[in-house]
Design goal:
single chain, mainly beta, Porin, 14-stranded antiparallel β-barrel, 1 helix
C-alpha cells in the first residue's frame, strides 16, 4: 500500500477537497465504506477553508449509505459542491460495496461512478483594478462535464478500521472553449486507519490517520486523536503535516444524531492571509428501535 502511495509525478496545487472530520465523512474518501455502519446513515458536512482569503475553497457534501441484501451489499449516494477561486464543481457519486463477514470484522470491496460539472468563469479574474479588462483570454466561461470511476477496500471491526482507496481513477483534462488544456485532475490515493482504546469505564481514546498521495505533491498525513467521555462528548486535535493544526468537538446528541465542529489553524505562511478554516458536520442514522440499547459505533 505504501508503494502505491509513493507513485507520484507532478501537480501544482490542491485538487480534491480535504476534510478534517474525514472519519465521519468516509464515504467521500472510500467507496468500500458504504453500508459499514449497518444502518441507513446520512451525513452533511460544510467546510469553509482559509476564511478571509479571497477565492479560498468552500465545500459542501451530503452522503447517505445503507446495507442491503442481508448486509452483504452496501449502497451509497453522495452529492457535492466545491468552490475554488473562479471554479465551481458540482457532482453526484453512486457507490456500491460487496461486504464479506469475517470472524471479527467485515472486509468490503467498493466501486463508484461519478459525474461532475466544472464551471470556470474567467471574467471574474481581477486583472485591471480600474475597470473591466479586454484581454480575450479572460472573456471565457467554461463548463465541462466529466465521468469518472473509483475503487477501494475497507476492513472494519467494532474497534479498528483500515482502508485504501482511489476515488477517481481516470485522469481528467480540463480545457477552455477553444480546446486548449488548462489543467489536469490527477489520481489521488488515500490510506486511512484508526482504532479505539478503553481508558476506563467512561473514557475512550480514538487515534486515527489519513495518508494522502497525489502526483507532484509531498505525501501528506492527517494525524489525530479524539478523547471520548461516556460515548457522548468527543474532544480532539489533529496535525496535518506541513499545513495545519486543528481542534474539534463531537457531540453524540442521541443514538441517532451526532454533531461535530472543527477549526484548523495554518502553520505555513498562509497564516498571514487567513483566519483559519471552519468545518461543521451533522450525521443522522435511521433504523434504531425506541428503548432498545444500541452499542455505539465509532467508525
Amino acid at each position: 500500500m505504501f508503494m502505491l502511495l509513493a507513485c507520484v509525478s507532478q501537480v501544482k496545487a490542491q485538487q480534491d477537497p480535504m476534510y478534517t472530520q474525514y472519519m465521519f465523512n468516509m464515504l467521500a474518501v472510500n467507496p468500500a465504506y458504504a453500508g459499514s455502519r449497518n444502518v441507513v446513515s446520512a451525513t452533511a458536512l460544510y467546510r469553509n477553508q482559509w476564511t478571509g482569503l479571497d477565492g479560498a475553497p468552500q465545500t459542501t457534501t451530503f452522503t447517505i449509505d445503507a446495507p442491503v441484501n442481508d448486509k452483504k451489499i452496501g449502497l451509497g449516494l453522495q452529492v457535492f459542491n466545491d468552490r475554488l477561486g473562479i471554479t465551481n464543481t458540482t457532482g453526484i457519486v453512486l457507490t456500491s460495496a460487496y461486504r464479506i463477514r469475517m470472524d471479527r470484522g467485515t472486509l468490503s470491496f467498493g466501486i463508484q461512478g461519478n459525474v461532475a460539472n466544472r464551471r470556470a468563469d474567467f471574467t471574474q479574474v481581477r486583472l485591471d483594478p480600474t475597470g473591466t479588462s479586454n484581454d480575450v483570454a479572460f472573456q471565457d466561461f467554461n463548463s465541462q462535464t466529466n465521468f469518472n470511476i473509483g475503487t477501494g477496500v475497507y476492513y472494519n471491526s467494532d474497534r479498528f478500521y483500515v482502508g485504501l482507496s482511489a476515488p477517481q481513477l481516470l485522469p481528467t483534462l480540463y480545457a477552455n472553449s477553444s480546446g486548449r488544456n488548462l489543467s489536469k485532475q490527477e489520481i489521488h490515493l488515500f490510506l486511512a486507519s484508526g482504532f479505539v482504546a478503553n481508558l476506563g469505564t467512561d473514557f475512550k481514546l480514538k487515534p486515527s490517520v489519513l495518508v494522502k498521495g497525489v502526483a507532484g505533491a509531498p505525501i501528506q498525513a492527517d494525524i489525530n486523536a479524539t478523547f471520548w467521555i461516556k460515548d457522548m462528548i468527543g474532544i480532539g486535535g489533529q496535525y496535518r503535516t506541513n499545513a495545519d493544526v486543528s481542534a474539534f468537538l463531537e457531540l453524540q446528541l442521541n443514538q441517532q444524531m451526532r454533531l461535530g465542529y472543527a477549526y484548523d489553524y495554518s502553520v505555513t505562511r498562509l497564516q498571514s492571509f487567513n483566519s483559519g478554516s471552519h468545518e461543521l458536520m451533522l450525521r443522522y442514522e435511521f433504523g434504531f428501535e425506541k428503548d432498545k440499547f444500541i452499542s455505539p459505533r465509532f467508525f
